[in-house]
């Protein structure tokens, strides 16, 4: 079986269009002119899509219907888990800002996870611990719905931030 038959069989198997592959040069590599042509054809994805809109709207609706901020205000002083969770969240955000603002923008270290490999696991662990603390602090209010409500709020914030940049 020669190369053209193999390509044709692969196109039929995966239903690829004939113009979907880049022409190869004599060495079997795609040239730089073909990669730029392919990049020009690709359109950037829209920032606001159905998935993003769903999480933002769900977070807004949840905030309104369960009086999220009112409950946080009323229960803030009743539990020390809020303070501990807030401190852990602050630590994880400070590490994230250190990585993004100082290391990447100011110092120009693009791959800070290679140079400082423990920053990402520490940030992740402190953020997860903060989430657990917030779940414990609000458990008496919403019971089994607490993780679902906090996750919906988290996803709404993440999707809103993705719209910004």
Automatic annotation (TrEMBL):
Swiss-Prot/TrEMBL keywords: Membrane, Transmembrane, Transmembrane helix
Alphabetical list of InterPro entries matching this protein: TMEM128
Residues annotated as transmembrane: 48-66, 81-106, 118-138, 144-164
Superkingdom of the source species: Eukaryota
Membrane recorded as keyword: yes
Name used for this protein in its record: Transmembrane protein 128
Species this chain originates from: Microcebus murinus (Gray mouse lemur)
Gene field: TMEM128
């Amino acid at each position: 079986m020669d190369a053209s038959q193999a390509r044709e069989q692969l196109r039929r198997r995966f239903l690829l269009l004939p113009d979907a592959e880049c022409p190869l040069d004599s060495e079997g590599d795609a040239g730089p002119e073909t990669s730029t042509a392919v990049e020009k054809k690709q359109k950037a994805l829209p920032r606001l899509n159905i998935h993003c809109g769903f999480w933002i709207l769900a977070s807004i609706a949840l905030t309104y219907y369960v009086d999220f901020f009112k409950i946080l205000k009323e229960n803030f002083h009743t539990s020390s888990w809020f303070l501990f969770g807030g401190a852990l969240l602050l630590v994880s955000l400070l590490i994230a800002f250190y990585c993004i603002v100082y290391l990447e923008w100011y110092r120009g270290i693009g791959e800070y996870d290679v140079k400082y490999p423990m920053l990402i696991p520490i940030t992740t662990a402190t953020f997860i611990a903060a989430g657990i603390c917030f779940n414990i602090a609000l458990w008496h209010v919403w019971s089994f719905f607490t993780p679902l409500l906090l996750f919906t709020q988290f996803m709404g914030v993440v999707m809103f931030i993705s719209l910004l940049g």
